[in-house]
């Protein structure tokens, strides 16, 4: 069951993107997107309200390879709209063919995550947007150089002035890209249709799989986003010569060794390969690994040990795979803009 994809082409105005105001949002001056069925209200920071002009500027920056020092890599290189806003590589290639250590998470529904990156080192989409630009393995640019280069481009100069009332600066770059990424949402899946009352939206196997999933997995993969945003050690990569320390690199706490943020599972059937290191290619294998309680690791989380205790049967695991396919719904495939 593949995702149903709508192409939202945004040129000047946001075509097909509905921006509506709620009462609370009006009081704060925020425009909130009308979200797909099944998703909660979109969280929008008070200091970065959504506007069509800002989203369009963010789209331009997202696809612009000039944000990398080599002029060859954009945000869309590793988070490709045609690949469910990720890429089908274990880990991404960056500047000068350097290979990163972690899999590129999908941008889809990242707006709902309480932290960004596998280790949660950024709290917001705005913080996340700047990280890869200056990372020497990824885009390898210097922000003071980049802002000067973009300021010399008349259209970027005008758009920043119109949207933010400033020259090109890193805060504006972060806010524009984040605003654009908040439009990348997936909902209205067969699961959502089932929850809304259409009992024919799921197959018998998917209903069975949903029941098993809610018993075994929903504490961590909590609806409606199917992530609680917390960090757990599932033993993935624990057998490597030098395992990734995960969340410990951010928190400095030994108990966070090997722990990674729970990924949301909407569109999971389309966002392979899986886990922080991209070490599992097939959804069936990823589900089987988690259903058996992860891999052996000294720091294996209690949540994973609890799943081990459930001793799930093969038919239950197979039905869970079918249920996860039912989390594929509608998400935008955005065309690259004409760049100045």
Q: What does this molecule look like?
A:
The protein has 340 residues and is mainly alpha-helical. It folds into two domains: 4-186, Orthogonal Bundle (Cytochrome Bc1 Complex, Chain D, domain 2), CATH 1.10.760.10; 190-325, Orthogonal Bundle (Cytochrome Bc1 Complex, Chain D, domain 2). 34% of the residues lie in helices and 6% in strands. The protein contains 13 helices and eight strands. It has helices spanning 23-28, 52-63, 75-78, 125-134, 143-151, 154-164, 170-181, 190-195, 204-216, 248-251, 283-291, 302-310, 314-325, and strands spanning 4-8, 10-11, 13-14, 19-20, 32-33, 231-232, 260-261, 330-334. It has a two-stranded parallel sheet. Strands 2-3 form a two-stranded antiparallel sheet. The longest helix has 13 residues, at 204-216. The chain is globular and about 60 Å long. The model is unreliable at 1-32 (pLDDT under 50).
Question: How does the SSE layout of this entry go?
Answer:
Layout (H helix, E strand, L loop, with lengths): L3 E5 L1 E2 L1 E2 L4 E2 L2 H6 L3 E2 L18 H12 L11 H4 L46 H10 L8 H9 L2 H11 L5 H12 L8 H6 L8 H13 L14 E2 L15 H4 L8 E2 L21 H9 L10 H9 L3 H12 L4 E5 L6
Parallel strand pairs: 1-8
Antiparallel strand pairs: 2-3, 4-5, 6-7
Helix pairs in contact: 2-7, 4-7, 9-13, 11-13
């Amino acid at each position: 069951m593949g995702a149903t994809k709508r192409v939202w082409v945004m040129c000047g105005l946001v075509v097909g993107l509905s921006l509506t105001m709620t009462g609370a949002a009006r009081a704060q001056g925020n425009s909130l997107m009308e979200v797909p069925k099944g998703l909660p209200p979109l969280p929008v920071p008070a200091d970065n309200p959504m506007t069509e002009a800002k989203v369009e500027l963010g789209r331009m920056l997202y696809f612009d390879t000039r944000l990398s020092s080599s002029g060859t890599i954009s945000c869309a290189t590793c988070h490709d709209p045609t690949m469910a806003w990720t890429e089908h590589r274990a880990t991404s290639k960056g500047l000068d063919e350097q290979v990163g250590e972690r899999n590129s998470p999908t941008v889809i529904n990242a707006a709902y995550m309480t932290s960004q990156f596998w280790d949660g080192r950024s709290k917001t989409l705005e913080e996340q947007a700047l990280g890869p630009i200056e990372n020497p393995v990824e885009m390898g640019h210097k922000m003071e150089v980049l802002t000067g280069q973009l300021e010399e481009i008349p259209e970027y100069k005008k758009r920043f002035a119109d949207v933010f009332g400033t020259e090109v600066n890193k805060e504006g770059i972060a806010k524009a890209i984040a605003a654009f990424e908040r439009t990348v949402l997936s909902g209205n899946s067969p699961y959502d249709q089932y929850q809304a009352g259409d009992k024919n939206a799921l197959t018998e196997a998917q209903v069975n799989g949903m029941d098993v999933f809610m018993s075994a997995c929903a504490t961590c993969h909590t609806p409606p986003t199917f992530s609680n945003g917390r960090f757990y050690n599932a033993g993935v990569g624990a057998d490597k010569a030098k395992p990734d320390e995960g969340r410990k690199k951010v928190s400095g706490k030994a108990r966070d060794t090997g722990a990674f943020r729970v990924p949301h599972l909407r569109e999971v059937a389309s966002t392979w390969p899986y886990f922080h290191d991209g070490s599992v290619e097939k959804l069936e294998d990823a589900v089987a690994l988690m259903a058996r309680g992860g891999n052996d690791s000294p720091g294996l989380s209690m949540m994973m040990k609890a799943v081990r205790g459930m001793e799930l049967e093969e038919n239950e695991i197979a039905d869970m795979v079918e249920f996860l396919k039912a989390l594929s719904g509608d998400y935008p495939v955005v065309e690259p803009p004409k760049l100045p």
